[in-house]
Amino acid sequence: MEMGYSAAGPLVLAAMEVREAEERSEMERLRRHYASSLLHRTDRILDGLEELNLYEVARVPETWGLHIATVVADLPFDYGLSVHKPPTPTEAIDIVFDLQQALLLWMTGLEPEDDALENAS
What is the DSSP code (8-state) at residue 84? Predict the structure, then answer.
């Protein structure tokens, strides 16, 4: 028996649907891994800030701004962050918590806009 186009059509469509589902699954896995990596980076920053806080350091080093800026630059969404002077460790911790909150909102599928952040607090 010869298989014509009409018989192969559903098989081809099914194979394409399976391939698309696999690609969506892989994209979601990569998205979760990327977000997890960003959270891990912010956790490491928090560890350093908590240590500075324990040692009662008055202001975080200026290099702190570079560390947080690299995380913000890697975010998959727009996030406005402006720090004009080196903050205290406690202020810097609050900044990182706000950043983590925005990232967690993004991970759950919400847009981390300013209004959403205020309502989530």
Answer: -
Query: How many Cβ atoms sit within 10 Å of the Cβ of residue 21?
Result: 10
**Average pLDDT over every residue of 81-107:** 93
Q: Do the beta carbons of residue 112 and residue 102 sit within 8 Å? A: yes
For the four alpha carbons of 45, 48, 54 and 60, in that order, the dihedral sign comes to negative
Q: CB–CB of 68/95 below 8 Å?
A: yes
- How many distinct structural domains can be found in the chain? 1
Residue 11, pLDDT score: 87
CA atoms within 13 A on the CB side of 59: 9
Residue 70: inside a domain:
yes
C-alpha distances (whole Å) from 66 to each of 94, 97, 100 are 17, 17, 17
Q: pLDDT digit string (tens) for 43-52?
A: 999 999 999 9
